[in-house]
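Note to self: user wants both folds in one dump. Writing first protein now.
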Amino acid sequence: MTFTELYEQDIHAWTRQTAELLRQQRFAELDVEHLIEEMETLGRRDRQGLVSRLKILLAHLLKWHFQPAHRSSSWRGSILEQHLRIRDLLQDAPSLEPYLPEAAAKAWCDGVRLTSKETGLPPAAFPASLHYALDSHLDDDWLPGNI
């Protein structure tokens, strides 16, 4: 089986073999085309992961804000979990920090849609754009009050 066939049939085995070739500095044997593709995918995956985490965080913050009668320690725990996961992601990839405002803006509409589905409130009940300060909604102790 060729290295390219391995990539197409078993990406996990391909990544292990690629890492071993890199360790041994056998660069001429690398599947460079797919290696470049995978490196680009890693960057996109981190950006998509940040947006995904922000969607969930924003949905939880909106539920907290718009359904005060349903607040619970479980909701607070879910908000904290997303804070921690976002913080971990930003610590592992600090170059994502400047992307945070754009990622939050992208996440807002889906966060509203998730909240609408979970609460039964119409999307129009929520602000049209992100109105929480980014530094606030990434603070472990901050929870939204009244808009």
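First done. Writing the second protein, which came from a different request thread.
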Amino acid sequence: MVSRTRDWIRQAKRNLASAMVNYREGLYEEACFEAHQAGEKAVKGLLSHLHKERRGHSITFLLSEVEVEVPSEVKECASFLDKHYIPSRYPDVFDEGAPMDYYTKKDAEECIKCAERILRWVEGVVGGA
């Protein structure tokens, strides 16, 4: 399997940048989704570095395939971001209204912090890969 680590991490950084733009524009649900994408792609980059492939979108389950010690704060962030993968995008998750009616600035800030934490940890593990 060819390592695509750099590509995954570059795209994770791009998703994180998108999360920040959405945050600045007040599109908090979009910021949360993009933060999730950043975390997911960072971990898929780590898996690529380890010559593993895992499909799916749950950062928590992707991390279960990693053969290195995962810090508790990274696991907590994975779980937190996973909770925003679907509700941040689909109106039918809620009884009424759309995701934009539910997501707040604080939600977006927390999602972005978690994505940054996961990305920093992944980069620390893979080094200059």
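Dump finished. Worth passing along: Residues 5-126 form a domain with the Four Helix Bundle (Hemerythrin (Met), subunit A) fold (CATH 1.20.120.330).
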